[in-house]
Amino acid sequence: MADEQDRQIVKDAETALDQLFEKYASASDADKWILKPALKKAGEELLVARLALFKEGQLTNQDDIHSLAVIRDEIDEAADGQALVMSAMKLAAFLGAFA
Predict the structure, then answer these.
(1) What pLDDT shows up at residue 1?
(2) Entry pTM
(3) Of the candidates 80, 66, 57, 72, which has an alpha carbon nearest to the alpha carbon of residue 7?
(4) Which string of DSSP letters, residue by residue, matches 2-47?
(5) How far apart are the C-alpha atoms of 34 and 50, rounded to whole Å?
(6) Kind plus residue range of the DSSP H or E element containing 95
(7) How many Cα atoms sit within 13 Å of 32 on the Cβ side?
(8) CA angle 75, 60, 97 (to 5 degrees)
(9) Is pLDDT of 2 > 70?
């Protein structure tokens, strides 16, 4: 069974992706166009990371929890499509480290 910390990373990453989708929903058509590939990549990486993190043993540490919190803050503070794309790609890269 995965460690509680690993499960928390998955929950927090799901929340971050939900935040991105909420911002996507209210974005302009042009911003949606540039954001869609980054959202897709983040979603794909979340799926792979979820499978890896639910394996036996702990894969994450406190630095990972902090890094994900920083990404979530960046998503909250993103003021335009380009900032959202950067946040989505940071989320995808972060999750890709667990694949």
Answers:
(1) 43
(2) 0.89
(3) 57
(4) B-HHHHHHHHHHHHHHHHHHHHHHTS-HHHHHHHHHHHHHHHHHHH
(5) 26
(6) helix 81-96
(7) 8
(8) 65
(9) no
